[in-house]
Design a protein that fits this description.
- The chain is α/β, with parallel strands linked by helices and 253 residues long.
- It has one domain: Rossmann fold, CATH 3.40.50.
- It contains eight helices and seven strands; from the N terminus they run βαβαβαβαβαβααβα.
- Helix 1 packs across helix 7 and helix 3 runs parallel beside helix 4.
- The radius of gyration is 18 Å and the shape is globular.
Length: 253
């Protein structure tokens, strides 16, 4: 088996860090992207695979950055096999409290995901090998939860989720697969600090009895990265909430 090379955006912490760790533990090369160089340096040191990891700091919401990220990956590892579109921002707010400027910030990640995916597809086609793209979505793109008002960021997540169904058909002839993982509630730095009381409450609402961990999501991403006959799939990884269990019905306050 040849060594995979993966780009992971938003990789300095949370889901991105766990996904990068999973790929590295499975022998892959990883380009770790994020906006803050010092955080990436810290993450790379903790991951502790200096020969198979590089960091490329930059903001993916700037479409000009996409060619740089792909080019630096190819310069270091010779190719790109896998793209994990994980980067994003989140903010809980009532609908009428969001500003158009805030909405534009969320939608910037749609533009960035589009541009980076384009550059990755071009590179994989040039390499003439199979490729994989995994977008990180959320179950909130399908099921609203009263306790988590977040229409503006979820509009952005919904866009990169819809991208999966359409692009999977277009790219199938190139043997480039695109899927998405839709996490349920997974406390990460993106959500801010979660009190023990809130965490206990959230655990009780999940059909499987607990909220998710970053490793739960990383395991699903790694599955999709290696499932050679799976494309166009949006995989809920949510402890059973999307199945209509207690999670969505009880999370009301």
């Amino acid at each position: 088996m040849t060594t995979q090379t993966a780009i992971v955006t938003g990789g300095a912490s949370g889901l991105g860090y766990a996904i990068a760790e999973g790929f590295l533990n499975n022998g892959a090369n990883v380009t770790l992207n994020g906006r803050t160089l010092s955080k990436l340096e810290d993450a790379a040191q903790r991951l502790n695979h200096p020969d198979r990891i590089q960091i490329v700091a930059g903001d993916i919401t700037d479409p000009v950055f996409a060619p740089k990220l792909v080019a630096e990956t190819v310069a270091k590892f010779g190719k790109v096999d896998v793209l994990i579109n994980n980067a994003g921002i989140f903010a809980l707010k009532n609908f009428t409290d969001y500003t158009i400027e805030e909405l534009d910030k969320f939608l910037g990640y749609v533009r960035g995901t589009f541009a980076l995916t384009q550059e990755t597809v071009k590179q994989i086609r040039q390499q003439r090998n199979d490729g994989v793209i995994v977008n990180i979505s959320t179950i909130l793109a399908f099921n609203g939860i009263k306790a988590l008002p977040s229409v503006a960021p979820i509009m952005a997540k919904a866009a990169i989720t819809a991208m999966v169904k359409n692009l999977s058909v277009e790219l199938a002839a190139d043997n480039i697969r695109i899927n998405a993982v839709a996490p349920g509630i997974v406390p990460t730095p993106l959500y801010g600090e979660v009190s023990p009381e809130t965490l206990d409450y959230l655990n009780q609402q999940q059909p499987l009895g607990r909220v998710g961990t970053p490793k739960d999501i990383a395991d699903a991403v790694l599955y999709l990265a290696n499932a050679n006959w799976v494309t166009g799939v949006i995989l809920p990884v949510d402890g059973g909430v999307n199945a209509g269990g207690d999670g969505t019905s009880n999370l009301k306050q």
